[in-house]
Design a protein that fits this description.
Strand order of the largest sheet: 1-5-6-9-10-11-12-13-14-15
CATH topology: Lipocalin
Structural class: mainly beta
Number of strands: 15
Shape: elongated
Number of domains: 1
Strand content: over 45%
CATH class: Mainly Beta
Largest sheet: 10 strands, antiparallel, barrel
Radius of gyration: 25 Å
Number of helices: 1
Order of helices and strands: HEEEEEEEEEEEEEEE
């Protein structure tokens, strides 16, 4: 599944549910009933008090069933050898290694955590941490590659790991609130930490980078029923730079539904898509990562 297809699916579900549902109250509390006999100037619209928006702190956790489509990484290193008093310096250009097709990286399930603190109505501070850690082994390498200043030959048994750990913290302002939900904007900071390691019976190497990126996002939430909410979020992080300097980007799309058993507890199901790439200037380290997958979890509010 490509990133574009995932965007279309999430947006279509959100719009469809939004257009086929009855009104409810999201962030504004339901209005008190009009006393009997009082002239209202017209018929009263039905009011449904929603469940799930009355909290100060919201904690949620989930299991994400990741389905990576692109996992590529390269690392160029300078090696130094001394023999008979003579020092030789060699630049080993890193191969852009495909961790899926060449090293056998496959779909896996990972835990994730989120926290939301409502400061005052419409204003929230949010944070999340999602660590992805893949480990795999290929018994007969299909082709040679260079990584971390070392060369691995075709036919060798190679073990590898690929870690993608990302946390982000951001501020959310719900600029537009209405009976059925709200629409807001977000501004935040993301830390993208990538590390990869390769090893065979004779050698091993590890390369890693950590890149901080500012970002902007948007969120929309809709209540088709008093206990059911549907949410779509988009976030884009970017660290600009030239082709020879450190730069990176990350695009995230998240669509999910929450069924609230009470104002304190809910169950969650969603689909998330990530697309990211980076270039680290010195030593040269590059990579790209695209992953889409569903997740299920729960929410607790206080």
């Amino acid at each position: 599944m490509t990133m574009r297809i995932a965007v279309y699916i999430v947006c279509s579900v959100f719009v469809t549910v939004s257009l086929t549902s009855a009104p409810v109250h999201a962030q504004n509390p339901p209005q008190p009933p009009v006393p009997a006999g009082q002239n209202t100037g017209g018929p009263l619209a039905p009011v449904v008090a929603i469940v799930g928006e009355e909290y100060h702190v919201e904690l949620s956790g989930a299991a994400w069933f990741t389905r990576p489509s692109t996992v590529q990484y390269s690392d160029t290193e300078t090696t130094t050898n001394t023999a008979n008093g003579t020092t030789t310096t060699t630049v080993v250009n890193g191969t852009l290694v495909n961790f899926r097709s060449l090293l056998g990286l496959d779909n896996q399930v990972f835990a994730e955590g989120h926290i939301t603190v409502r400061l005052i109505p419409k204003h929230k501070i949010r944070g999340e941490y999602i660590p992805l850690q893949y480990k795999q082994s290929v018994a007969a390498l299909a082709s040679d590659f260079n990584f971390n200043g070392q060369t691995y030959k075709a036919g060798q048994t190679v073990e590898s790991t690929y870690h993608w750990n990302q946390w982000k913290v951001f501020y959310e302002f719900d600029a537009l609130t209405f009976d059925r939900g709200f629409v807001g904007g977000m501004v935040g900071l993301s830390s993208m930490n990538i590390s990869a390691a390769t090893a065979n019976s004779a050698q091993s190497g590890t390369a890693s980078v950590n890149i901080l990126m500012p970002g902007l996002g948007a969120i929309g939430r809709y209540y088709p029923m008093e206990k059911l909410s549907v949410t779509a979020e988009f976030f884009g992080f970017d660290l600009p730079g030239s082709g020879t300097s450190t730069h990176a980007h990350s695009l995230e799309l998240d669509g999910y539904a929450v069924y609230n058993f009470s104002k304190h507890v809910g169950a969650q199901f969603g689909v998330r898509a990530w697309d990211a790439s980076h270039v680290w200037n010195s030593p040269l380290n590059t990579g790209s990562f695209t992953v889409v997958g569903p997740y299920v979890g729960g929410t607790a509010r206080f």
